[in-house]
Amino acid sequence: MPTLAWPTLARGKPAEMSWRLLFNNQLGMESPFSRSVQTLEQAGSRWAVHFVLLNRAEADWRLLEAWLAQLRGMAGRFTLYDFSAPNPRGTIGTAGVTVNGAVAQGAATATFAGAGNAKTLLRGDKFGVAGEVKIVVGADFTSDAAGAMASVTFEPPVRASAGWSSGAAVTLASPTATFMLTADSVEKLVRVPKLANVPIDAVEAY
To answer: 75, 83, 73: which is closest to 47 by C-alpha?
Structure first.
């Protein structure tokens, strides 16, 4: 089954959107004496999204209904970006940026090339590499005169077993991840005069 793109709607974006990280931590036993707790951090963090497309005209909700049917519930996959933050707040350009130096699986730091002179990436900005969407954390970053932006820290860590290769493209404009629905059915509420609310709940799938 092919991975679907988000459909082109007359009103493309929801008014509100939750885009959050789900971590894969295990809670250990709590001491009955001191109340101390141990947690085990594991790989497998993924993005989750929730939004409702409100008051959609019939042309939009019929297109969404067909798109959702094509997904076949949780079996299908689709790409999505964070509608609430499609571009970085920093001054970095959105084209021509690449990974400078190989980045191993599990790493949470990378250096970029082609960022331009004295350009910035700010905490909370998102970028994508090889289908993985990351959020900048820890500090704001500024490139040097050669366009290198060193030691950018991000979450979640690199997931690909092969890591990221040097020269891999960095997507800064609407970086997408691959998602699946969290249920096999999606309810829509239709009311007169044929306006509908369509909820979408999905988690990253890889």
So the answer is: 83
